[in-house]
Structure prediction request, 475 residues.
Amino acid sequence: CGHQEIELALVKLYHVTENKRYLKLAQYFVDERGHGKVGSKSPKPGRDHYYDVEALARGQNPNNFHFARNKPATTRYEYNQSHMPVREMSVVTGHAVRAVYLYCAMADIANETGDAALLKACERLWHSIVDERMYLTGGIGPSASNEGFTYAYDLPDETAYAETCASVAMVFWGHRMLQFDANGQYADVLERCLFNGSLSGVSLDGKGFFYDNPLASAGHHHRQGWFDCACCPPNIARLIASVGGYFYSTSADGLWTHLYASNTAEVTLGNSPVTIEQTANYPWDGKIELKLKLSKAQKFAVNLRIPGWCQNFTVKINGQLSMVNGQLKKGYLKLQQTWQDGDTITLNLDMPVQFVQANPAVRQLIGRVAMQRGPLVYCLEGVDNKIAPLDRVMLSPETPFTAEFKPKLLGGVTVLRGQALLQDSQWGKQLYATVDPNKTQLKQKTVDVTAIPYCTWDNRAPGEMRVWLREAVNE
Prediction:
């Protein structure tokens, strides 16, 4: 089969038709996956792995499966996540897009059937990605050879594959997991993938696309108008077209806000219609205003997501500062009262420039730092910083950077400006030299640098790009 999309599509078909046979078929595919012995030379249906059975029935060699040619039988089907029953899985393997589509279907079926084992497997696999295998941009799958996962903490930046479709799939999965528990960790990842690893997949004019999304480039990686395997362009297009569906959820006792941007939405709470008018300049600004329109006074809770990157915030109701101590639970702030028509909630999220380090187990990023502000990851691009190579730039987390909105740059973006240290080469054409404590081959000088949102890079003149830069050590 191709990617594991039929399962989640069948659940959607069940929602539309209310015909349970579609749900049962999706459940069968998920339940059947990973059962049977692999490697038999004459497989028998019901006893051996169904992909081996099908390949031989077609007159083909199971060892020639795409991306898994000549792999050992015990690991061959890790590529498409059919190496073990899904409820036993705890480590993500194989093709990243295939994997996350499967996990989306598992979450859908767990939601429809109350299957606790499926949900637990989803939670284990979520942490296997987010805690050990996710790029700062929300990209997943570092390897081009299998378009997917390798091993924990293997996150090279310049050769990162991080397929656009994989980040899009993480948005799908994060939204599904969020509905079980209203846990802000899922919304944080959803937002990170949406604003960075997914959005980078399309140019500002909508005519160019990235298939893979590295976190560093020597200047040779560019968007294309189309691909022979053109999954990413329509995938990012449908995500952008459907983004409004990710902002709000409702529960028995109230409204949940997950994302922030100017919008108007209508929901039903307690059999009564409620209209939310949200006004924001997010992600450039952390001030968000929500105005409620009600046909009658109504008691319910408004649960505001406080992003994991935000350390300080304030909330006002109708202009009056609200006391919120102790009310933050799993990343959401609960405001419960009897609301009147026209009531206004103003949320202010502090949005300083933040420096980020990677776990030391990520060997490729030891001694490196990156910058983010709000939900956006930033990068240095050669067109703004006439320094070659950009890897000579060293950032100090103690050096202040300022945010400045540039309305005419890249459609209107906030850039980060500050100073960095630059290794000024004195080597000439010499490739190596013996270390001499009394002689400095590399001198340092201070330079001004400008960082732009990662999702907007490669929209101007071709050139270098880097997210992770060397950390300057202050003596």
Q: What stands out?
A: The mean pLDDT is 92. DSSP finds nine helices and 21 strands in the chain.
